[in-house]
Amino acid sequence: QGWAARHIFEFDKHHLDLCEAGVLVMPGGRSAHLELGYLIGNGKPGFILMDNPDRWDVMYQFGTVCFSEEELRGHLGKA
Fold first, then answer.
1. What is the pLDDT of residues 10-66, one digit of tens each?
2. Residue-wise over 31-68: b if at least 16 C-beta within 10 A, else e?
3. N or C, which end of the chain has less CB nearby within 10 Å?
4. How far apart are alpha carbons 75 and 47 in whole angstroms?
């Protein structure tokens, strides 16, 4: 709740509000997952670059799941 924590939150949120899309590179941490959810919830495209394509959570379908950097680049060109 201190000044530094509020400052970092507002800084990050400001830039999330400015961006056009977001990419979660797995394995992302809790903050990264919240940030991608915030973007998707605000109508912005969200992409998930998987690191273990053999198993992934079905809730990632809120975004666009990619299994390679090339696939991600193809989607980003359309976003």
1. 999 999 999 999 999 999 988 999 999 999 999 999 999 998 778 888 899 999 999
2. eebebbbbbbeeebbbbbbbeeeeeeeeebeebbbbee
3. N
4. 8
Please choose, from the candidates 14, 54, 8, 16, the residue with its C-alpha nearest in 3D space to the C-alpha of residue 24: 16
- pLDDT tens-place string over residues 50-65: 987 788 888 999 999 9
Beta-carbon count within 10 A of 10 CB: 10
Torsion from C-alpha of 8, 13, 33, 20, nearest 10 degrees: -140
Are 49 and 72 in contact by the 8 Å Cβ rule? The answer is yes
What's the pTM?
A: 0.86
Task: Report the distance separating Cα 47 and Cα 71, nearest Å.
Answer: 10
